[in-house]
């Protein structure tokens, strides 16, 4: 790292969205002059640049894991420029990480030369042919030997291409890692030449790490060719609600939740007798949690109530969602209730535990309850609890064991029923 960026105020390049129309994008959006990282609603940005860089990297990792191709479409009208280019961010990460893991050195191939020395990797055939031995007794002793010596060749094309890719990677997302940047490349971009070289190297190596590097560089070259100064590049989604659902599912859900999906059917009165009755579409709850011999039907909702409670009912799930959730609960109780001590029901919505109007710093909090006017005496599974979950906590802790989180959530869900 021989050069430094001008001071980059990372916090000024971060934005926590409101999840309202025109402000729903989560991810990174940039052009040749600027970059903005968009965090989901309810996210608390840490104070230090070190922690903020970790959070940005984690956000992008979460998007890489949980965003499907069908979820990454952007509403172009929300952007100031009409031309948008999908950013292969994992390829850029791979190129930067390889460079840093090798202490700032570029990929290189070696030249092998022969030298006459008293040490090294011996070439006995050439030594015998070219060096005069000293005879001791009846045995020849070679005081000087021909040895093979390898040196990196930094002038080869593959090294120059790698240098080009490393520089471009740091130019676009290097601020996530460091204030330094590598020296500028000494080769002009040539897509055809770069790709033919990289495809050849990829085909002729058996080393997985080299294959990953070459594949990432190929993705970068393809992107660079499509990217111009008049375009913005992005990595992220306008549909973070699908990511929120998957995160909550990762936190709490059992693996075989399909058996809890309520199904409906049609019996067609005029169909041929040999045709079986057909199921209609299945209702699918987001998560099914089992904890302490109890069953919890959970539905993740990326609604704004936890961040803007003053919006009231307009920021909470509507009647259709409530009635559907009650159906989930009724089905689970009728079908599997005898296997559990009780069955509960809840929506999970985002909030900020550090900045909220609920006077709490807990990761989970119960703030509301929904039900159906048509149920005179609702049971626990027909009383849908409105639970808020801290956005930053969920994004940073989706992996690993969640027994403690299940305990905390169960307490919040059940306490309303005990009051």
Which descriptors apply to this entry?
single chain; 419 residues; 3 domains; 5-stranded mixed β-sheet; disordered N terminus
Note down, in words, how this protein is organized.
This protein has 419 residues and is an alpha+beta fold. The protein has three domains: 3-105 and 160-237, no CATH class; 109-153, no CATH class; 240-418. Helices cover 33% and strands 22% of the residues. It has ten helices and 19 strands. The chain has helices spanning 49-66, 89-101, 124-130, 157-173, 191-203, 208-226, 240-252, 319-336, 391-396, 403-418; strands at 3-4, 14-16, 26-30, 35-39, 84-86, 109-117, 121-122, 134-136, 139-141, 145-153, 180-181, 232-237, 265-266, 278-279, 287-291, 294-300, 342-351, 364-370, 384-390. The protein has a five-stranded mixed beta sheet with strand order 2-4-3-12-5, covered by helices on one side. A five-stranded mixed beta sheet has the order 15-16-17-19-18, sandwiched between helices. The protein is elongated and about 110 Å long. The relative contact order is 0.13. Mean pLDDT is 84; it is low at 1-6 and 74-83.
